[in-house]
Amino acid sequence: MALKDVFSTKGIKTTAASKILKDYIPDFDATVTKKLMDAGCILLGKANTDEFTMGSSTENSYFGPTKNPWNLERVPGGSSGGSAAAVSADECVFALGTDTGGSIRQPSSFCSTVGLKVTYGLVSRFGVVSYASSFDTIGPITKTVEDAAIVLNHIAGHDVDDSTTTRDKLPDYTTFLRSDLKGKKIGLPKEFFGEGLNNEVARILENAKSMLESLGAEVVDVSLPMTKYAIATYYVLVKSEASSNLSRYDGIRYGLSAIKSKDSGLRTPDVGLSLSDVYLQSRTEGFGSEAKRSIMMGTYTLSSGYFDAYYLKAAKVRTKIKEEYEKILSEVDVLMAPVSPFPAFKIGEKLDDPLSMYKADADTVPINTAGIPAMSVPAGFTESGLPVGIQIIGPMMGEGKIFEVASAFEKAAKISDIKPKL
Amino acid sequence: MAKLSKEDVLHIAHLSKLKLTDQETEKFAGQLSSVLEYIEQLKEVDTEGVEMVSQVTGLKDVFVPDEITNPVAPESLLENSPEKEGRSIKVPAVFE
Question: I need a labelling partner for A4 at 20 to 30 A (CA). Which of A98, A132, A220, A266 fits?
């Protein structure tokens, strides 16, 4: 297996692709690392990511960008781009990623892998470097839907070290795998199929819809009008939580520090530094551009005078988004939607325009805002050979419903069998 | 108030414990302003009487036994510290 480099691995560097943690070696394993090691998995490597998982292209890594195995001039998606690329290129059997706003599903769509974003609280986050604690989830990136079910069986469940994990008795997820969809009702949320959806992606989704119908499912149009507010809600809350989470990197206890200036590239002599200088210099030197932008943005939205207008407002809109999904998912079994409005873009294309990069997450961030599970399943290729996945969205703790639909679709579509030419 | 001035950005940087170059200050002023402008649309949503969500699980008052379950040796934790003395982390004085 490969682990995104945010999973703590005892005695092995865990960098979060940040300069501030470039030499950090944890003294303990994340709960999921331990569970998989105990199950006999062998760690083949730590996979690249956007710094602190902040990004949609794996270009925001201190160690440089990862390339897409299907087209080396394109991004693998992100932030779990290293994990998806490693699975796609057959460098490992499976990988773990994290998904705060699409970071498992979008790279899975871009690299033709199966990527599962679980219900918030299904898998322990203990020992995994945080981005936004009320959104972060952990899940498998695999070659087949069955592999995803097998990995999930090993990582899901209660953990005393993560108080947000469920105490529910969980099913064996492989029992949901099936080959027809008789009696299933699948909703297509029209807001995901509107303006901005690439023509070739739309064509692949249309084919997927026909295939789901031919497998016996009833496919109906549904509407989620709050979708247009999801990106704004998501970014206010996530950047607020991120600024708080990143305040722990202060150059005092671990990580890059102005106190120890050798090797750190810091210019200032290590004598005569005040405590405040240590904070300031360590953070300024250690964080990359998107991390700094996140800290600044979150500090602003949490600051006195703006908290009510931004953070509190967004947290209330979040309630409305969550309720809208609860209602619709009580009427249909699952939803089917695009994972991304377009296939893998060129390296460097969106790097200087954070707002356009944020908007690229339009189809994935509503799911994290609602806390529900969703999977990207390989569904086809553009004319130039770029992979495109479809997103199957389920209700809270409804991973089983996703596995039913995804497994039947995968067997009929046979896209997961196609590999990149390397 | 969506447009951030250079002074606003420097103030946020100060609160964030980050030091920005002139170039970064200018870049962030533009980028953060455009993101904040985009966020303004949340004002359209009627949230009168709506409770905020701080987490989505619905779990409440989760208790665990007050026992040490993951013992990590202090010595090994100190391995990652920039400067130490004995079993303590050494830091600059808070007051001059």
Answer: A266
